[in-house]
Target: TRI46 protein
Amino acid sequence: QTSMKNMERELVCPVCKEMYKQPLALPCTHNVCHVCASEVLLQHGHLWRAPGWLEGLGAGTTGRDGGGDETFCPADPHARLPPAGFGTYPGRKRGAVHPQTVSFPCPACQRDVDLGERGLGSLFRNLTLERVVERYRQTINISAAIMCQFCKPPQLEATKGCTECKSSFCNECFKLYHPWGTQKAQHEPTPPTLTFRPKGLMCPEHKEEVTHYCKTCQRLVCQLCRVRRTHTSHKITPVLSAYQALREKLTKSLAYILSSQDTVQTQIAELEETVKHTEV
Model:
């Protein structure tokens, strides 16, 4: 158990403190998630362009995944790419006239790592580490078998989960507690788990859970949406903050409407009386 915990610490990104997703290998031999690296560069005033292996952003292929060049990530997917020698290069700061090298602050060794003029485009995706993370996840899932919560002893291993019921079931118990023709029959089965989280809204473009709200566009965005040039100068806040602000606004509006209800009803009665008097 101790060795597994030690291994898990080695598979955690130093920025987001979660297991690596699409890790990039830095020149200092440390690794960082692609989204995390993009956010760090944006915080330091650098624009970026997506490596070709990043799916869903319209880029070509690059590096060890198939060769080729990266492509810019325009705000409009149908926009033409800027010609060579024009526009924003990875590593050029906003407003810079000439390309400059990117200095990336490694969160693991606390050093500024030189990425050159290409920025993230010069880094390779650490496929070996990515496979290790995936195998570790599979090992954890296999070793921690989840049992049905409704079987009479001896319990059978759970094969389905239900987010609405917040429970895990074997096949027979799932059918028993979700009888045909009832509201529960509409519940969608999910993989069994011990911790049920409410089903989050997913970004239709990147298939990632939305975590922020863009006030400028008035839409929910995921982590990958945030690092695109579309939202470079937009006001973006966490979903919870946007929810609380909107809730307070609606609560005040509702309170005003309810407080004015008696006055409005009185005015309506007076108008109806005037209509009757006019008809007479």
